[in-house]
Amino acid sequence: MHVFVHKNLSNHRNVKLKQIWDKMSRSVAWQRTASDAVSWNQDQALSSTIYILREVGPTSYLLKEEGLVKKFKVSLGDPHTCNCTKFSKERNLCKHICWILLKKFKLNRHHELSYQLGLVEREINGLLKGRKNNERIIDSKPDSIPTDKDGTKHELEQRKVTNDDVCPICQEQLLAKHQPVTYCRYGCGNSVHIKCMKVWADHQRQTTNDNVILCPFCREEFVGHAKLAHEFRNTMNERRNNADRLDCHNGITCRSCNMIPIKGKCYQCVTCVAFHLCNTCYHNRQHLHHPFVFRLKKTQRWRAAPTREGNGRSMETLLGPVAHELQSRELNENDYELLLQLDSNGDNSGVPVDLAGLPEHIVNRIPMMKIKRGSRLLAAGRQCRLCLRAYTVDQFVRRLPDCGHIFHRECIDKWLTEDHRRCPIDRQLVQDHHKANSTS
Question: pTM of the prediction?
Fold first, then answer.
């Protein structure tokens, strides 16, 4: 027993000595807390869409930020470096370095290593080990891909997408984003966002002049350029109906309820960068400490939003006891209308409350159809955005009444009956139109 205790104390002392040595031997001073500038850049990193174009060694990356032409090279070390203008001027952690630490290496923003200006070898080795544990283990690839007599390769089946699967290019969870995916046909069968793969493939073609797209997972042939472009066009056509609406603010997400895109009035914080709220969440008195501007249509100019302070009791105060009462007892079918009232008070300025899913009889009223041969849903790239699997002939699907998004019947029924009452793509409330029509 004494030997065991002595050994533990010795190990603890050795760890402490190594930590002290790391702090003394680094080329940049140890940061006790994250500065305001670093914290702001972390916010920027978490709200930006950034793509990994290439890994130049285990700790160096070539990045592309959505909407920008310039590419950025980030290297982790002692100190970290980036070739962006902000890092060159301030010599502080820019959002690209923060993105690698927070998204690629999955560090919590409050972790002491997430805001250091550099990391020593032992700390980097720890990050690499943690990344290896977090990344999906790719099953053994087939020794050879079956081919026809004319040499045409047979495609592999898509591997089932799980909650742990992350896009290797944008580092977002696949099932959480509900964005369409493609998959490696000739190597591993793993899935990647179609949009991300298009960015990856375009970079490969520009730098190597090679018509073969390599998989970011297994480095085998992924899919042909023509097929990927066809999938990409089909997914863009699917979004075109929403894009044509002037009151649909494409690419903008409500930072409170995650509606994407925001439809109707869109509110933008004057102080924070890329902080938006939908009409419901704005009138629910979210983010009160900063002023806002708003617009109804994307072609309009931003106008100063009315203040929300000093207007008496909020809807949350008025409806809070009702929501609390519902949470403290079993729900029944008669509570559905009350839930809708809590979620929207008629002028789209109510309080979103996620207390329960839809009753089964409401879900069963949502229009259902069977996929037939020649259906547009069978086009390359079209898929259920809940399970991220392609549609097939004779499957049953449901079309949500307001937004028109289509899902596998099993997928959307499970989503709506298990604590969701909104479309998983654009967060629109699923209404009971059958009852509305019967009472009109």
Answer: 0.75
